[in-house]
Amino acid sequence: SHTGQSYVTLWEHTKRSFYGSFLILIASLAVAFLILREVFKPLKAVEHQAHLVTRKRFTLNEEIPVARELRTVTKAINNMVINLQSTFDSLTKQTQALTEEVYIDSLTGLGNRKLFENHFSSVVDTITTDAPLTAMMITLPSLTNINQTVSYQDGDAHVKDVSVILTKIIGNLTNSKIFRLNGSTFIALIPYDAQFLNRTRLEITDAFSKQKNSLHVNGFANFAILEVNKGSSIGSVLSALDTGSTIGDTIETNKIDKDTLFSVKQWRTLIQSIIDSGEVSFSVQPVKRANSQNKQCYFEAFAHFTHEGEKVNNGHLFAMAEKLNLTEELDKKIIRNFVNVKEQYPDDVFALNVSKASLYSADFIQWLTLYAHTKPVIKTNLIFELHEISLLYNVHIASKHIDAIKDIGINVCIEHFGTSLTSFRYLQGLDIEYVKIDGSYIQDLLDNSQSQFFIQTVNNICHGFGIKVLACLIEKPETLKMLENLGCDGVQGNLIMEPSKVLTSKNRDNVNKEFTFCADTLKFCN
After folding, report:
1. How many angstroms separate the CA atoms of 401 and 361, rounded?
2. Would you state the torsion angle of the CA atoms of residues 6, 9, 13, 14, taken in this order, to the nearest 10 degrees?
3. How confident is the model at residue 157 (pLDDT cuts 50, 70, 90)?
């Protein structure tokens, strides 16, 4: 045969062999891919489960893989999750039972006298012109008559009616607390001055007058209000309030002139002016790592507003802003101005307080995401502190928005932890870095075994989730030592360091030389 024809035949055979082998290779790879995907599909589920564990979400993987090694890993992680869940449930039930027994009034669900004393002690020494405190006492003079002439069930209904009214009106005031001291006495501690609360008093007395009927022979309720001075004793405050409620009049402010009340329109104008052109300065207080002399967890930043040369009371400002739906804009104002501080100290960790309105606002989260692209400095070394009461308003939505905040690069801390007097079960699924125990559990820590047990249990629960526990309002070395022994990760208070003003390059030459900010170590020298 011809040699050329042999080569042609051989070449055609080679091409057919190559294409055939290539098709077989593709088919083999496809089959291998499908097989490997099915084999490693459980590994993807294990990876997802591990990722959820790092975000404090404990779920079981129901699909057990066939491969021996993967089956062992899956079962091990499932057992770990079950053990964590069991420990968490047990500790949560113990803590909840202790809280209900020691601190909660069984009829109204409000805090009892013990909790009132703890909270009063935690705030009375922090009273200033910018952070006032007002006490309100409400007594029920007709309760005894109702119990004796009608029934105790009607008496309980009368008590519940009053608690509902107070919770509805006073509960809307940020950081306000309501307690039931005994059968016929309620007391509220509100972080505003008496003049600012005139409108609130009108709402309460109006609500009481609408509830009055023939059973209330001595009146529906008596009301007294008193501005608390720094360092006042509980006995003196209760005595003065008791006298005021007995005579049915207020203390300090004996009459209300409706014409002198600052109108809503005036407040709106003031707040909008602050948002548009008001000055913002910052002071900070360090949160120190426990059992460490110099290392810090972070520095908590406090904003101070100035309008037309006068300092604005933050409590009043944010209370009215909340009523006028302007707290979200105030938070944006704070963040924009704080960038000036953050840019000068990019390597130091700071914490800012964020309001309830901002936490639940999708528009705020969207704005924050976009703003972080223009100011990348806020993507690192920044923490948002959220009040526990705000978080519990809707844990599901709050959790989604916390995830969005974490995706930006900002960590989250729950402050005033324990004030809700509810179960800690909501912690499961929240991707947070810190919880800060409310100061009411700190003040009597040395003499109160229940508070010691509470803090120890919080540490056990949170450490199981990978959450660090902080304690605040520390004034005594003995308290600091006990908190460190109980396992707290960070401590804050005047014993550690008092709040100090931050000087930026923009205001360094115009401030009082009494304060100096040392940039190299982020220490505040007085």
Report:
1. 8
2. 60
3. very high
The residue count for the chain: 526
Q: Report if residue 516 sits inside a domain.
A: no
Same domain, 347 and 487: yes
Residues 6+ apart with CB under 8 A from 207: 165, 168, 169
Same domain, 123 and 73: no
pTM listed for this prediction? 0.80
**Radius of gyration over alpha carbons of the chain, in Å?**
30
Decide the pairing of beta strands 516-518 and 523-525: antiparallel
Helices (H) and strands (E) in the chain, counts: 16, 16
From 235, 259, 283, the end of a domain falls on 259
Contact 456, 95 (CB under 8 A): no
At residue 375, φ and ψ (nearest 5 deg) are -125, 80
Residues sharing a CB contact under 8 Å with residue 44, sequence separation 6 or more, in sequence order:
none
Q: Which residue has the tokens 């052109």?
A: 277
- Evaluate whether residue 273 is within a structural domain: no
Q: What is the pLDDT of residues 160-206, one digit of tens each?
A: 999 999 999 998 788 899 999 988 899 999 998 888 888 888 899 89
Angle in degrees, 0-180, between the axes of helices 327-344 and 264-277, rounded to the nearest 10:
20
DSSP, residue by residue, 10-66: HHHHHHHHHHHHHHHHHHHHHHHHHHHHHHHHHHHHHHHHHHHHHTT---------S
Say if residue 21 is in the same domain as residue 129.
Answer: no
Q: How confident is the model at residue 247 (pLDDT cuts 50, 70, 90)?
A: low
Same domain for 215 and 338, yes or no, is: no
- Separation CA 139–CA 142 (nearest Å): 9
Which CATH number characterizes residue 419's domain? 3.20.20.450
Please report whether residue 509 resides in a domain: no
Q: What is the largest CA-CA distance in the chain?
A: 131
List the CATH number of the domain containing 221. 3.30.70.270
d(CA 119, CA 319) in angstroms, rounded, equals 20
Is residue 290 one of the residues assigned to a domain? no
Q: Which of 81, 69, 77 is nearest to 45 (CA)?
A: 77
> What is the domain range of residue 19?
3-81
DSSP-based three-state secondary structure for 352: strand
For residue 468, the cross-strand partners are 434
User: Do residues 387 and 482 share a domain?
Assistant: yes
The answer to whether 196 and 219 are in contact (CB under 8 A) is no
Alpha-carbon span 282 to 302, nearest angstrom: 5
Tally of domains in the chain: 3
Residues 76 and 118 in one domain: no
Which of 298, 308, 344 minimizes the C-alpha distance to 502?
Answer: 344
Q: Which amino acid is at 7?
A: Y
Asked if 175 and 227 sit in the same domain, the reply is yes
For residues 368 and 493, state if they share a domain: yes
Phi and psi of 422, rounded to 5°? -120, 180
